[in-house]
Design a protein that fits this description.
The complex is a heterodimer. Chain A is an alpha+beta fold. Chain A has three domains: 186 residues, Alpha-Beta Complex (Polyamine Oxidase, Chain A, domain 2); 175 residues, FAD/NAD(P)-binding domain, CATH 3.50.50; 92 residues, de novo design (two linked rop proteins) (Up-down Bundle). Helices cover 33% and strands 19% of the residues of chain A. In chain A, strands 12-2-1-16-24 form a five-stranded parallel beta sheet, with helices on one face. In chain A, strands 10-9-19-20 form a four-stranded mixed beta sheet. Chain A has a three-stranded antiparallel beta sheet with strand order 7-11-8. The N terminus of chain A is likely disordered. Chain B is mainly α. Chain B has a single domain, classed as Cytochrome c-like domain (Cytochrome Bc1 Complex, Chain D, domain 2, Orthogonal Bundle), CATH 1.10.760. Chain B contains five helices and two strands. In chain B, strands 1-2 form a two-stranded antiparallel ribbon. In chain B, β1 and β2 form a beta hairpin. The N terminus of chain B is likely disordered. Classes of the chains: A alpha+beta, B mainly alpha. The interface between A and B is large, with 68 and 47 residues.
Chain lengths: 536, 147
């Protein structure tokens, strides 16, 4: 196609936009035909039964998978201990709030300077209603949830190369795309072009449905008027009194809309992982990890860097050192081991498991991802633009801007997620920058969508997942071919060791993958422990 | 879209991404629209590799580590380096167009010419003094051999 016909966004960028919005298994489902279950495999609550007398389990990693495993095994009567590299629990379940300090690989340190009550979640930030495992543990642990606004009709779709770079409201793009498609399809139907596909009886029903779905007029046209403005919004809203009369807005033309590429932002509003209702913990996703940590208390040993994992016929021994100093070499022993250390790190730790599992651990690389949190002096997106929660998607390198789903209408400062990117080169590029430069770039690009950035920006913080010392990457990057060759070998119980985490799931990057992986792993471990008997 | 067309598109986007370079060495171009030539090994290192291998190619250590590429005897083999970038190695993602894995969309990839350029750059900087070079054709040949 010629340059003039080419959409303002490349196919790659469109896919990026979709991928960023889905962020998840949905794209895998769409593009790779993986065998997803229709719903989380979670069965509430798990009933392991009783542990063999005296049996013990060592859990490596106090992220969601490790803490689910530890909690359930402890409740079943196992003697449990956890080793955690960080000085806090949660792993990638993590919230940065004012006063928090974070030092990334390479040595650059940041201190979060957000106001009281404001935060960003560098890792997971939302819970689909069908992630029943996560929702169940939130309820059990007393973590309060509130709605997370994923889809906001008044947020923007933005292409730097369309409409002069002016962001378009999602509702207008959606109404116009549906309207134009409905009009074309109605025209084809009425000119008998679809007679071979549509029976005479269905024809009238199809036309009725297109008229209603696309807000077409009596002549099956999508035009400026009450019908279209009722979907896309008015240029002057109806009100009361003498100035009550509404003014209708002008739809975007079919050509301009197609050429803009903004239609690529529409399907994510229908994606399974993004559909309402979504939830978030009140006060930040990190509340989940914090609640698990309270529950597990002194079972967790923090600042423990595992440097060796060895099993024999009697048990498993993990050797660890102080995460900060590398000194104070110690060991922890148990009959069994649930290892949730990310493969990016586990691959570097000597561990005597069989060849197939070794190969599986070594086969998987980790995705790059970057988030930037920006504090502004006021909530201009609400005050000036009436955007309450939700996400704006853009072809700019920042990928998206997400507006807070809490404390609406509050005075004082507010925090946006000012960039969320992965996988593509811009994510590597952001990772390569210093933390301060990432923040500066996020402000620079975001100002193209919200000019208020220039005067209202206060401070920011950034996390590049390849530089997170406890993770060395964001999540396991599986392909169909890698899964076919290695996935089962990764998940098999190897002697006394079983792995768990999002990397051992078909829900990459989602906490539900960690939860269901852990429950599956400990169920198999428990059966083996019972078979081995009391004297493990 | 054919693979060839997709590769071309990917290459264009990478060109866009790597091309725009302000004066500061690590102030990344970040998918800027400016189209420039892309075969500057230093730029590729600073905008892609440096994310993990760090400024000065000094590597880093946390719960696990990223290897330093400075003063690195394993770089004696340019073929080893090329295969590592093409196909990935352990936690290092593959950047070869045939091997890179995307999450939702096409992944970030480097062309054979870019891979050759960044290898030649790293092998002659950061205390590495290898004088033999690798070409895009060499990288291409390695990609054919290695499966």
């Amino acid at each position: 196609m010629s340059a003039s016909q080419r959409p303002a966004m490349s196919r790659r960028q469109l896919l990026t936009m979709i991928g960023l919005s889905a962020g998840s298994s949905v794209m895998y489902q769409a593009m790779h035909s993986l065998g997803f279950a229709a719903d989380s495999s979670f069965q509430d609550p798990i009933r392991l039964g009783s542990a063999p007398p005296g049996a013990s389990v060592l859990v490596l990693g106090a992220g969601i998978a490790g803490m689910v495993a530890a909690l359930e095994l402890r409740n079943a009567g196992y003697r449990v201990q956890l080793l955690e590299y960080n000085g806090r629990a949660g792993g990638r379940n993590w919230t940065l709030r004012g006063g928090d300090k974070y030092q990334e690989l390479g040595g650059e340190a940041q201190e979060c300077r957000f106001d009281e009550g404001l935060y960003i979640n560098p890792g997971p930030w939302r819970l689909p209603y069908h992630h029943r495992g996560m929702l169940s543990y939130c309820k059990r642990l007393g973590v309060a949830l509130e709605p997370f606004i994923q889809i906001n009709a008044n947020a923007y779709l933005h292409s730097s190369k369309a409409f002069g770079g002016k962001p378009q409201r999602l509702r207008a793009v959606k109404a116009d795309f549906h309207g134009h498609v409905a009009e074309l399809l109605a025209k084809a139907t009425r000119s008998n072009a679809l007679d071979a596909e549509v029976s005479a009886d269905d024809r009238a029903l199809l036309l009725d449905s297109l008229q209603f779905w696309g807000a077409l007029d009596k002549d099956f046209k999508y035009v400026k008027g009450a019908g279209s403005s009722d979907r896309r919004g008015f240029s002057k809203d109806p009100s009361g009194g003498l100035s009550a009369r509404p003014e209708f807005s002008e739809p975007i033309s079919t050509h301009d809309l197609l050429k803009s590429g903004l239609w690529a932002g529409l399907p994510f509003t229908d994606m399974y992982d993004m559909q309402p209702t979504m939830f978030q913990p009140v006060g930040g996703m990190g509340r989940v990890g914090e609640a698990f940590a309270r529950e597990l208390g002194t079972l967790i040993r923090y600042n423990a860097k595992v440097i060796d994992i060895a099993q024999d016929e009697r048990g498993v021994t993990a050797t660890y050192v102080d995460a900060q100093t590398g000194a104070n070499r110690q060991s922890a022993k148990a009959d069994w081991c649930v290892c949730t250390i990310p493969l990016s790190i586990l691959d570097q730790i000597p561990m005597n498991v069989g060849g197939p599992m070794q190969k599986a651990i070594a086969a998987v690389s980790y995705c790059t991802s970057v988030k930037v949190g920006l504090q502004f002096k006021r909530r201009f997106w609400e005050q000036d633009e009436r955007i309450y929660g939700g996400v704006t998607y853009t072809d700019l390198p920042i990928g998206q801007i997400s507006y807070p789903s809490s404390n609406y209408f509050s005075d004082g400062k507010g925090v946006l997620l000012g960039a969320y990117i992965w996988d593509l080169l811009n994510s590597y590029e952001f990772t390569s920058l210093s933390p301060a430069e990432r923040v500066a770039k996020a402000v620079e690009y975001g100002a193209q969508i919200h000019p208020q950035y220039k005067t209202e920006f206060d401070n920011g913080i950034s996390v590049a997942w390849h530089r997170v010392p406890s993770a060395l990457g964001c999540f396991a990057l599986w392909s169909d071919a890698l899964r076919a060759e290695h996935y089962d070998n990764l998940c098999q119980l190897d002697g006394r060791i079983v792995l768990a985490g999002e990397h051992a799931s078909y829900l990459p990057a989602w906490q539900e993958g960690a939860v269901t992986s852990a429950l599956d792993a400990i169920s198999r471990l428990h059966r083996k422990a019972l078979a081995a008997g009391a004297k493990a | 879209m054919t693979f060839r067309a997709r590769s071309a598109l990917v290459a264009i986007v990478i060109t866009l991404a790597i091309a725009y370079l302000p004066a500061r060495s690590n102030d990344a171009g970040i998918m800027n629209a400016a189209v420039l030539d892309t075969t500057d090994g230093q730029k590729i290192f600073e905008e892609v590799c440096q994310g993990c291998h760090m400024n000065g190619a000094r590597g880093a250590e946390g719960a696990g580590h990223y290897p330093a590429l400075a003063n690195d005897p394993t770089l004696a083999s340019r073929e080893y380096m090329a295969l590592t970038i093409l196909k990935g190695r352990r936690n290092m993602p593959a950047f070869g167009e045939k091997h890179a894995i995307g999450f939702g969309g096409p992944p970030a990839t480097l062309s054979e010419e870019q891979i050759a350029a960044v290898i030649n750059y790293v092998r002659s900087h950061f205390g590495n003094n290898y004088t033999d070079k690798i070409t895009a054709a060499d990288v291409h040949a390695l990609d054919q051999d290695a499966h």
